Amino acid sequence: MTTHVKPLRKRAAWEALQAHYKKIQALHLRTLFANDPGRGERMAAGAAGIYLDYSKNRITDETLRLLVQLAEESGLRERIDAMFRGEKINITENRAVLHVALRAPREASVLTDGRNVVPEVHAVLDRMTDFSNRIRQGEWRGHTGEPIRNIVNIGIGGSDLGPAMAYEALKHYSDRRMTFRFVSNIDGTDFTEAVHDLAPEQTLFIVSSKTFTTLETMTNARTARAWLLKGLGGDEKSVAKHFVAVSTNEAEVKKFGIDTANMFGFWDWVGGRYSMDSAIGLSTMLAIGPDNFRTMLNGFHQMDEHFRITPFERNLPVLMALLTIWYTGFFDAHTVAVLPYDQYLRRFPAYLQQLTMESNGKYITLDGMKVDYQTSPIYWGEPGTNGQHSFYQLIHQGTRFIPCDFIAFDTSLNPLGQHHDILMANVFAQAEALAFGKTAEQVKAEGTPDWLVPHRVFEGNRPSNMIMAERLSPEILGKLVALYEHCVFTQGVIWQIDSFDQWGVELGKALAQRIVPELESEAEPELAHDSSTNNLIHRYRRGKSGL
Ligand code: F6P
After folding, report:
1. Ligand 1 pocket test: which of 214, 267, 503, 505 has the largest number of ligand atoms within 8 Å of its C-beta?
2. Does residue 3 surpass a pLDDT of 90?
3. Most CB atoms within 10 A, among 296, 337, 370, 433?
């Protein structure tokens, strides 16, 4: 496919940014703040209850102007419209990209291939609602007549990370009489530990897989089936009451033996990592209830609308994306740290890793050319304040340049004495310390001996965003996720890559399928790998047979 957009480095705004970078690269945030007392209030934007303070970034008004120009020159406006119009912007898979339709209100219309998909979305949501109510109210019973008390989601990647993150994030709103577990890893330990204290009579498995062919998920699902049958005396009929499926692949669901009446569908225009608000969120709905789930969808939708219509200079996902482009493109930033100051968001960085890196970890452009610039940085992080006592040393005084996204809330869901004020004092202090540091003069003035001074100096000038909201609610979680989804989309448009395919995971999957029989065959296999892989396979075969 050829696009009308020039290669990144040839765009006028990129060239202007290069010249601009040379001028401002050494500017310190101390100077920027000292020269502009209103910077902290001015360089902030709010939308749909999310506040973004981006003033502690190494930018001037001119930087922002040029970055916005870059977004325009990259065709961002047209690409946003194309996505919302249901065009097949996932060109390598010839698919529309319509996760925004998953949270469109019932009366909305979102067309793809001339069909309005919103009624189908709501039909599935209604079925999920009915099912969730029946489970939560004890109407749907297990094979022996006991109510379902345990939900085990079996899935991996987008069919696990979203549900697992959302369950943790919204635990406060969940039905505490129920137990939720998430099995993803092919390592048998994951399944074993997930079910070790569960009664099969009271356990429901949700097999979540867009394709219903993923090796890990199908293996775990078969193990779950065997575990259930063993626990319930081997009656095959019990499967119907203890297994439901979430998938786009009806034929495979049937083949596995799950009644398609107990299948919740979604569509090929929902990417795995964009699916936590589809039926893949069934475990979330079971945990927090249908009303809360719909409130979360409404949060997503509000951010979608903000992204769709707001001018780029006030558009939160666009601003965040442009800052990442600025740092990866000009400051040689290789990573972004996501640091939520909320224990409930402890899985949020892991969730974002798939969203960001599976989407934008690509080196081929939409035109099929190799990029000559960096694409997705590595996203990583841990909740504050734990990270402070672990890796923050490197962010403050290491040799690497690491932009940070801090996420914090005005109020705690668990107000306990001084805890929240101390938590918030820490997040504000970290952003302040990173930006302004501590000079040698300040360190000396504290009476520090000369030899120790260099160790105690903080250069500062390390950028961060502060993302804040009133409290962590289902609605705010939806907004936060949509914020990052659209940030990733914007980055992909500027880097001119297909953010919605994931060919890079295929090779390893195919090789593993080839190696499995080589590990399991009775007879010594004839191996035709490289000498290292051959040796490792031989070594493993000897090791497992105790030779
Ligand atoms: O291996 C990558 C991937 O295809 C992800 O994109 C996806 O979220 C995950 O595997 C799981 O796929 P499925 O939902 O089809 O089991």
Report:
1. 214
2. no
3. 296
